[in-house]
Design brief:
Strand content: 5-15%
Oligomer: single chain
Strand order of the largest sheet: 1-2
Number of strands: 2
Structural class: alpha+beta
Shape: extended
Helix content: 25-40%
Radius of gyration: 23 Å
Distance between the termini: 62 Å
Order of helices and strands: HHEEHH
């Protein structure tokens, strides 16, 4: 998953929301984005020797932010890295179109005979 996520980043396909200074609607998003970047700053990786070149990555257990003293997690990085799995899935808009027939919402009004 680490290699797949890096390939998405390195090819410029990973995009982060760029908020404006007066963007009140996304204030909570900005808080999570700062936490995400903080987790990235503490993330480390190691390439395991061998022909498969497996990557071990994450924030080392027990790591604390030197500014706040809080434990640093890597859950936001992990959730972002899941796009690598999605990237390897077959996606297609071509194929048969399925139309779900719904009841006419105005049909119930016919009994009033306007």
């Amino acid at each position: 998953m680490g290699w797949d996520f890096l390939s998405i980043i390195d090819t410029g396909r990973w995009k982060e929301y760029a908020h404006g200074d007066n963007d009140q609607v996304f204030e909570d998003l900005n808080c999570h984005q700062q936490e995400f970047f903080n987790q990235l700053a503490f993330c480390q990786y190691e390439i395991i020797p061998g022909p498969e070149k497996k990557m071990k990555w994450g924030v080392i257990d027990g790591t604390r932010d030197p500014v706040t003293g809080e434990l640093v997690h890597d859950d936001l990085i992990l959730s972002a890295a899941l796009v690598g799995i999605l990237d390897n899935q077959e996606w297609s808009t071509a194929g048969p179109t399925i139309i779900v027939q719904a009841e006419d919402p105005l049909k119930s009004m016919d009994k009033y005979n306007f």
